[in-house]
Structures are given as C-alpha cells and as structure tokens.
Specification:
coiled coil, 3 domains, Immunoglobulin-like, about 30% helix, identical protein binding, Jelly Rolls, alpha+beta, single chain, seven-stranded antiparallel sheet, cytoplasm
C-alpha cells in the first residue's frame, strides 16, 4: 500500500511538473511576443523617423530655394527699375556731347582762315550756337538719391528654427490610448478603450478595424465616446481593432494602440424576410416600413435574444407615429396581432409609452426620434423556476431611451431562455436597425 501511495504521489508530481512546464512555456511565448513587439515597433519607429526627416529636409530645401529665387528676382526687378532713369539720362547727355562736338568742329572751321569774304560763315555759326542753349545741363542724381541694394534677415530666425527643430517630434514608449475590452455582440463587437497616459488630454478618438485576412484598416468611428459597437461583423471570424486619439487643441492624431483581435460567436440578429409591408437590408438587420397597405407585425427570424445581453434598436428614420406602434421582445410570434402591446410581450411605443403584457405602465420614456437608441436589458430573477413547471418565471427588465430608463419585473408563466424581438408601424418611413 505504501508503494502504491508513493507511485500515486509520483504520478501526481510528474503531472504537476508537466503542467508547470506548460505554464512556463506559455510565459516564454508571451515574453517572445513582448520582445517581438518592442523590436518591431522600434524598427518601424526608426523607419518612420528617417522617412519623416528625409521628407522634412527635402521640403525645407525646396522652400529655401523658392525663397532665395524670390529674393533674387526682387533684386533683379529693383536693379532694372533703378537703372532705367539713369539709362535715359545717359542717353540725353550722350546726345548733348555729340551736339557739342559737332558745334566745336564747326566753330573751329569757321575761325580758321577767316577773311572779309567769309565773315557770313562765322555769323551763321554764332547764331546757331545761341539757339543750342549751351548753358542748359541735364541734372544727374547724386549717389544718395539712387538705389543701393542690400540683403537683410532676422538673425533670431536661426534661434527660432533651432528651437523648433530640437523640439520637433517625440518618441513615446507606449500609446496614450489602449483598447480595454472587446465584447461580442450578435453580428457585432463592442469595443471599449481607455486613456493610459495621465498627462494626455483627449478631445476625439478614432477607431479602425479590419478582417484578419485584409491588408488595410478602415475607419469605423470618430468621436468623443470611449466605446463603440462595430456592426456587420461576420460570426466566427477574427477582426483586429486599434484606436488613437487627438489631444485637446491639436490637429495631429496620437500613435495607434496595440492592435487587439476579437471575434463574435453569436448569431447575428435578423428580421424575418418576405413580410409584406417591410423592406429589409442585405444583412436583414435593418427594417424599413414601406408604403404597402399591408401592415402587421415584423418579428425576428429566430429567438436570438438571450437574457444577460443588451438588445438595441436604433431608429434610423421616422414616419408618422401611431399609438399602436411598438418595438420590443416577446415569447412567441403571433401573426394575428398587429402590435406587441399584448400578452407575453414587453415593448415601447413611438410616443414613449411602455407596455408589459399588454398593459401600459405609469412610467413613460421620451418619444423616439431619428437617431434614438432603445435598449432592452433582461436578467432572470428566479433561476430556480426554470426547472419548475409550476409557478411564475420572473425577468428583471430595463428599457432605456434618450438617457432615461424604466425598470420592472416581467412575470411569465414559463422559463424563457431566448426571446423573439419585433416591431410594428402603421405608417411608412420608419427604419429600424437592430443589434
């Protein structure tokens, strides 16, 4: 017996050692992934920095070359404009010099060999000289009155540029925003994120996602909320999510968070197709009350709402309201009714009235408008009754709309693990998205 006990203890020790080894190997794998993330992000950051500063050098050189060309052109223009009146003055003086040369030559010829017979020639020269106005000289500008070009610049530019360059760019060891939680929804994933840098003051957030098989991320949300439900998610498919933020008063976005992978295993909510009076989107999660004269109820394709989940109806567009309009959940589909204001159903009307098993409650929610989101949350109050065919089954129901909510207990005669959802509108124009 003692040997058997020792063997048993040895087997248990071996199994414990194997478990311990598996755990250590998992931790080694986690360390490898952490090391890989550091090295890959460092390499990517080096590449981004080198590319950015290379682009910056090229841009600065281009701007400096353009500024130099502009200043040189300005020098050319000033030089040409300043030289122009001097050229005109020089032309006038050179004409005067030519006239004076001709007059001197003519006068010297008249004086040489003067006789009584050629005194008329000397008289003609004298009259000509009087008409030329030899005492009239053009004015030449002094040096202080003409342009003297020079170049100036503010030496503080270099100090300012040096300050800007030395403070341009930062390296962060981790992003200021990280994804906190991924919660699967029917046909969607709720993404929650949080700030991890206390000094960072976010103004807006930007969420991107992609299928694991896709190459590029795409924007799915930009706003001030710290959570968003990404819809049109295919079940049992991995998706990657990342988020960044824009600091208060800034234009640039922060670095992206570490991408997180999530998937939804829940069956997407779908409306029942082929119901006259309602047109559905391709994914059957949006129902539009068309202008068909046929009315009545539109139910979900299957009882896909489970207790413990949040069921959301978002009103995309509105039509004319009617007191019998209804949005809510029910135990079974009853096609003979034209509203969920009946037994074994809870709903809200478009005017905000809440009905439980066909009876209107005293508490009322705001009337729904375009963009309103109506949510249903339910939890079982007496789980034990699921195994008991007798007695009542009670669900704690919370209906929220436009920042107000009503809470009540919904008493049923049987256990209901899953429920149908439905809607009814008398007039066309109402469009409802369910998720």
């Amino acid at each position: 017996m003692e040997t058997e006990a020792l063997l048993q203890e040895a087997h248990e020790s071996i199994e414990a050692a194997r478990t311990y080894r598996r755990e250590l190997q998992q931790r080694l794998k986690g360390l490898h992934l952490a090391r890989q993330q550091i090295k890959n992000s460092a390499a990517q950051t080096r590449e981004v920095l080198e590319q950015h500063f290379s682009d910056l050098k090229g841009t600065l050189k281009k701007l400096l070359d353009e500024r130099l060309a502009s200043l040189l052109q300005e020098v050319d223009n000033i030089e040409q404009e300043s030289i122009k009146p001097l050229d005109e003055c020089q032309k006038l003086i050179e004409q005067g010099v030519g006239t004076a040369n001709e007059l001197v030559q003519e006068g010297e010829n008249a004086i040489c060999g003067i006789t009584t017979d050629n005194s008329d020639k000397l008289c003609s020269f004298t009259k000509k000289a009087l008409h030329i106005q030899l005492d009239s000289l053009p004015e030449v500008p002094s040096l202080v009155d003409v342009a003297s070009l020079s170049a100036q610049w503010d030496d503080s530019f270099f100090t300012i540029m040096k300050s800007y360059i030395f403070s341009h760019g930062t390296v962060a060891s981790r992003p200021p925003i990280q994804i906190e939680e991924l919660i699967e929804k029917p046909g969607g994933i709720l993404v929650r994120w949080c700030k991890v840098d206390d000094d960072f003051i976010p103004q807006d957030y930007r969420l991107q996602y992609r299928k694991s098989t896709a190459c590029h991320f795409e924007d799915v949300y930009v706003g001030s909320d710290t959570e968003f439900t990404v819809l049109h998610i295919d079940p049992n498919v991995d998706y990657q999510f990342k988020v960044c933020a824009r600091g208060d008063g800034r234009q640039e976005w922060s670095p992206w968070s570490v991408p997180q992978t999530g998937r939804s295993t829940l069956v997407p909510h779908e409306w029942t197709p082929g119901i006259e009076g309602y047109s559905l989107s391709s994914r059957r999660n949006i129902a539009l009350r068309n202008d068909s004269q046929a009315g009545g109820m539109l139910y979900s394709k299957a009882p896909t709402y489970c207790c413990g989940q949040t069921l959301t109806f978002r009103i995309e567009t509105v039509g004319q309201p009617d007191r019998k309009d209804s949005i809510g959940v029910c135990v079974e589909r009853l096609n003979d009714y034209d509203s969920l204001q009946r037994d074994r159903a809870v709903c809200i009307s478009t005017n905000g009235a809440v009905f439980v098993n066909g009876k209107e409650m005293t508490n009322q929610l705001p009337a729904v408008t375009s963009g309103s989101a109506v949510t249903f949350d339910m939890e079982s109050v007496n789980l034990g009754s699921c195994n008991n065919n007798g007695g009542n089954f009670k669900l704690r129901v919370t209906i929220s709309s436009n920042n107000r909510e009503v809470v009540f207990d919904w008493v049923l005669d049987q256990c209901c693990g899953t429920l149908y959802f439905g809607c009814s509108f008398l007039y066309p124009g109402w469009k409802v998205l369910v998720f």
